[in-house]
Amino acid sequence: MSLIDDLLKYKEEVDIRFHMPGHKGDTFNFKELVSLKENLFTIDVTEVEGTDNLHVPTGIIKEAQERASLFYGAKHSFFLVNGSTAGIYSMILGLLNPKEKIIVQRNCHRSVYSACMLGDLEVVYVNPVIDEEFNIPVSLDAEEIIDVMDKNLDAKAIVLTYPTYYGTCFDLEKVIKEAKKRNIYVLIDSAHGAHFRCSTYLPKDAIELGADAVVYSLHKTAPALTQCSILNVNLDNVDGIKFMLSLFQTTSPSYLFMSSIDAAIGIMNRSGKELAEKTISYANRLRNRLNSIGYKTLGIERIGKYKINDIDATRIVIYSEIGGHNLNEILRKKYKIQVEMSDDNNIVLIGSMFDKEDYYEYLYTALIDIKNKYIQGENKRRVFLKTDYKIRMNMRQAYYSQKEKLPIKEARGRISAEMLVPYPPGVPLVMPGEEITEDIITFVEKNRGKITFNGISDRNAEYIYVIKE
């Protein structure tokens, strides 16, 4: 049995994918993707005459990146073949020097914190706004961000997530205008927003709003292979960013990935509006129908609440009284539907331009069936992320300090020496240098075996390294 055999087995177990990558198996057979599939080994080449070089592009790769810049309206576009993480590292470390101050949204992806640790940066947090009905972080308070900037005018940059994993957006335009007045770079993790340029019915793209640098995961919502991303920059001087890209990107970049990035952008440029708006109509209809039979979904009616300024209508979040993890398991085992993720309360489904209407009809039928067959009760809801993080030590200093290993249930009040990251969505519960609180311990104990914990040496999260006292 090989890995290929195991993945083909997954294909037999799941009929409908509501998870990334956004191509959903290339449901519409676009010519670019068919050509990529048919010539997989033929175009798997290296840097020889005529194929250009990603690190010093002068030919076909340069032209492809220019097509991306034109589509997104950016001054510079850089293909990322190591995923969005390489772009996150490069935009942060390419613009900041060691020991400089950076403002970070506390529920950013782990790659942001890793970049701050690598760069030995001084981090100041901005806490997310929690939607108390779904018990998820959904936004940021623009006024609070402005207040944090005013208290930290020596900050060189601010890193924010737009949209969230749940498809919600804060008032980024206001934050960008205020940051520019204070000469603070605005760097955006828009991993889930690569498709926003496709329709005016979607939130405005971060580059369009004036962000200085934005990273997109084209594989999440656009028709690109996993690991294909792009970094768009609106600055004139990109020398530092280019240097860091040469540091963090492989010296053997995949031409399959680069071709996939270019193909995805070509498809979005040519057909994105039609495809995106079809998906929006399918998702809106599904939400309306589910709301009418007793489910609760996260939709545009929440704009204006919990500081939500806009929402990605292709993202589907469903609250269930039987619990998100239970609903996820039932959909997979009984109905061969795989969702993107689940938490205590909700399931998250990624709608993409490559969905078919039948997917949404079958999902609706399955959810009606589940509602009739399974007992609905009061779900004991817990907030996914708390806002009382306690920084006790610089991240880098904490990581390189003397450590000892403790059972996590005995680590309350101690300073963590490693990161603890539930996947998905990849937002750290605790980082090196932060205090381990009772809430964190309870969350881990409650979710062990239900979700994956990354970044921690003990994959079961039963033990954790702490600073030795």
Q: Could you explain how this protein is built, in words?
A:
- Strand 3, helix 5 and strand 4 (122-126) form a beta-alpha-beta unit.
- This protein has 14 helices and 21 strands.
- The protein is globular and about 55 Å long.
- Helix 4 (84-93) crosses helix 9 (239-248), helix 6 runs parallel beside helix 7 (172-181) and helix 10 (255-292) packs across helix 12 (357-373).
- The protein has helices spanning 3-13, 31-38, 60-72, 84-93, 110-118, 142-151, 172-181, 218-221, 239-248, 255-292, 324-335, 357-373, 395-399, 438-447, and strands spanning 16-18, 76-80, 101-105, 122-126, 129-131, 136-139, 155-161, 168-169, 185-189, 213-217, 229-233, 296-297, 310-311, 315-319, 337-339, 341-342, 346-350, 403-407, 421-423, 452-454, 463-467.
- It has 469 residues and is α/β, with parallel strands linked by helices.
- The protein folds into three domains: 10-24 and 272-373, Aspartate Aminotransferase, domain 1 (Alpha-Beta Complex); 31-266, Type I PLP-dependent aspartate aminotransferase-like (Major domain) (Aspartate Aminotransferase, domain 2, 3-Layer(aba) Sandwich), CATH 3.40.640.10; 395-467, Alpha-Beta Complex (Ornithine Decarboxylase, Chain A, domain 4), CATH 3.90.100.10.
Q: Helix proportion of residues, in percent? A: 25-40%
Mean model confidence by pLDDT? 93
Major sheet size, sense and barrel closure: 7 strands, mixed
Beta-strand segment tally: 21
The CATH C-level name of the largest domain is: Alpha Beta
Parts with pLDDT < 50 across at least 5 consecutive residues: none
**Shape verdict:** globular
